[in-house]
Write a structure and sequence with these properties.
The complex is a heterodimer.
Chain A (H helix, E strand, L loop, with lengths): L2 E4 L3 E6 L2 E6 L3 E5 L6 E4 L3 E3 L1 H10 L2 E5 L5 E5 L8 H12 L1 H28 L6 H13 L6 H22 L16 H21 L21 H23 L8 E4 L2 E4 L1 H16 L7 H16 L13
Parallel strand pairs in A: 1-5, 2-6, 5-7
Antiparallel strand pairs in A: 2-3, 3-4, 7-8, 9-10
Chain B lengths: L1 E7 L5 H8 L4 E4 L2 E5 L2 H14 L5 E7 L8 E5 L6 E5 L1 H4 L2 E3 L1
Antiparallel strand pairs in B: 1-3, 1-4, 2-3, 5-6
Helix pairs in contact in B: 1-2
The chains are: A alpha/beta, B alpha+beta.
Chain lengths: 323, 99
C-alpha cells in the first residue's frame, strides 16, 4: 500500500524490518514497508528512532498532524529526488519579479476559477442567491491580469475567498460557520475545513516530492509567511474541488454525526470516530479514478506541469474543475 | 500489479516466509499475503524467496496486472441475524490503510 493513516492512539514500532502499529490492548497490525510512501499520523503516536530509521532508508515520509488537522511537521526520507538545474530555475523564477508574478498569478487564477466552479455549479442547480457573489468573484478574477505585485495578488485571493465563504450560508444554512477560525476552530464546519485543508497540504507535498521541485522555493506564499511552501501554492488550486466539495457532501447529505466532534469551551476537535469516518471519505475522494485519473494523479500531473514550465517546455495552465 | 501469495511449508519454516513477506505484502490470513507491488519489488521478492525456499515448500502466487481489475472482499457473519456481510477491503481498493 502507498499510504497509511493512523488516527487512533498507538505505538509504532519496528519489527522484522517492517512497521508494526499497536493500537489499544489488542490491535496489532503489521504494515509492509516496501511500497509504503507516506505515513500520516493524526492521533497520538509513540514512535521510536528505529522506526524513523527504517522510514528514512525505505523512502517513507512521515507527516504529523495536530488535533485540528494542521500539518505540524514532516519527517523526510533521505535522498529526495532533486535536480540542481530545476532548483536553480525555480530560484530564478522567484528572484525575477516579473517571472514570480506570472507564476503567482497562475496559482491564484487556478484557485479562483475552482472556487467559482463550485459556486457556478450550485447556481446551475438552481440557487439564484449566489448570482451576486459569483459576479463579484468574476470581477476580481478578471482583475488579476492587472495586479502589479504578489502582495496585491494575495490580497485579491483573500478577497475572493472571503466572498466565497460568505456564499456558504446561502448554499445551505447548515454550512454557516460564522467567521473562519483556524487556531483553534470553534465549530464543526470550521473544524472540517482545517482538517481537510491539512490533509490536502500533506497530499500535495507528497506528490510534489515525486518531482524534482524544491518545496521550499514558493512563488505565492513567500518568506512573509511562516512557511514558504510550493505545496501550499499548488494546494490552493485543489482545495475547493477536493476539500470543500467533500464538506458540502458531508453536510448537505446529513452525514455529519455529533459523535465526530468534541466541543469544549469554544474549541471544536475531531474525535477518533470522527477522524476515522472523515479519513475514509477523504481516501475514497482522492483515490477514486475519474476520466483524468484520481485526484492524486491529477495533483502529481500538476506538479510536473509546473516543473515543465520552469524548464521552458510548456506554459503552465492551472487545473480547472470541469463544470 | 496485485499479488496474492500463499505458502504451505513445514511448521518450523513458516516463520521464515512470514518474516520475509510482511515487508512486502499485507498479512491477510495465516499463510496468505496480498497486496499491490511494483515490478521491481516483485523481482526483489522473488529473489529473496529463492534464497530461502527448499524443494519441499509449496508457494502459490496469483497475479493481476492491475489492482483495479479485481475486487477484494471480506465475508463475515454478523452475530445474531445470521446474514453474511460483504465488506470491501479499503487498503486493496485504494492503496491506503486507515488505522
Amino acid at each position: 500500500m502507498d499510504t497509511l493513516f493512523v488516527s487512533k492512539d498507538c505505538k509504532i514500532l519496528r519489527e522484522d524490518s517492517t512497521l508494526v502499529v499497536t493500537t489499544g490492548a489488542s490491535g496489532r497490525r503489521r504494515i509492509p514497508v516496501e511500497g509504503l510512501r507516506h505515513v500520516i499520523v493524526a492521533g497520538e503516536a509513540q514512535l521510536t528512532t528505529a522506526v524513523l530509521g527504517l522510514c528514512g532508508r525505505s523512502g517513507v515520509r512521515v507527516t504529523i498532524l495536530d488535533w485540528h488537522g494542521n500539518v505540524t511537521g514532516c519527517f523526510e526520507p533521505r535522498g529526495s529526488s532533486s535536480s540542481g538545474k530545476v532548483r536553480l530555475l525555480q530560484a530564478r523564477h522567484l528572484c525575477d519579479p516579473a517571472l514570480r508574478l506570472s507564476m503567482a498569478r497562475a496559482f491564484v487564477s487556478g484557485a479562483g476559477a475552482n472556487i467559482l466552479a463550485n459556486l457556478r455549479y450550485r447556481l446551475w442547480r438552481g440557487n439564484a442567491n449566489l448570482a451576486p457573489i459569483v459576479g463579484k468573484i468574476e470581477i476580481i478574477l478578471t482583475g488579476l491580469e492587472r495586479a502589479a505585485s504578489v502582495e496585491s495578488l494575495m490580497g485579491m485571493e483573500g478577497q475572493m475567498r472571503a466572498f466565497y465563504y460568505e456564499a456558504w450560508p446561502l448554499i445551505d444554512p447548515r454550512l454557516d460557520f460564522g467567521k473562519r477560525r483556524r487556531r483553534p476552530p470553534d465549530n464543526p464546519v470550521n473544524c472540517l475545513i482545517s482538517w481537510f485543508n491539512g490533509l490536502a497540504y500533506a497530499l500535495v507535498r507528497n506528490e510534489v516530492a515525486k518531482t524534482h521541485l524544491d518545496d521550499s522555493i514558493a512563488f505565492l506564499h513567500s518568506a512573509q509567511e511562516a512557511r514558504a511552501s510550493l505545496a501550499l501554492d499548488i494546494a490552493e488550486i485543489f482545495k475547493p474541488s477536493i476539500c470543500d466539495t467533500l464538506i458540502f457532501e458531508i453536510v448537505l447529505r446529513d452525514q455529519m454525526d455529533g459523535v465526530w466532534f468534541h466541543q469544549q469551551e469554544g474549541v471544536c476537535r475531531l474525535s477518533e470516530a470522527g477522524r476515522q469516518a472523515t479519513l475514509e471519505r477523504w481516501v475514497r475522494k482522492i483515490e477514486d479514478r475519474g476520466g483524468d485519473g484520481s485526484f492524486r494523479d491529477i495533483i502529481r500531473a500538476e506538479a510536473l506541469a509546473v516543473e515543465r514550465h520552469l524548464l521552458g517546455i510548456q506554459t503552465y495552465r492551472p487545473w480547472r474543475r470541469k463544470v | 500489479m496485485f499479488l496474492v501469495i500463499t505458502y504451505d511449508v513445514a511448521s518450523d519454516r513458516t516463520k521464515i516466509f512470514r518474516k520475509l513477506l510482511v515487508r512486502y505484502l499485507t498479512h491477510e490470513q495465516n499463510s496468505v499475503f496480498a497486496g499491490d507491488i511494483t515490478e521491481s519489488s516483485w523481482r526483489k521478492l522473488k529473489a529473496d524467496l529463492s534464497q530461502r525456499t527448499i524443494p519441499a515448500d509449496r508457494l502459490l502466487v496469483f497475479k493481476a496486472e492491475n489492482r483495479h481489475n479485481m475486487t477484494a472482499l471480506i465475508l463475515s457473519k454478523a452475530a445474531g441475524n445470521g446474514a453474511m456481510v460483504e465488506r470491501s477491503i479499503l487498503h486493496h481498493e485504494s492503496g491506503t490503510l486507515i488505522l
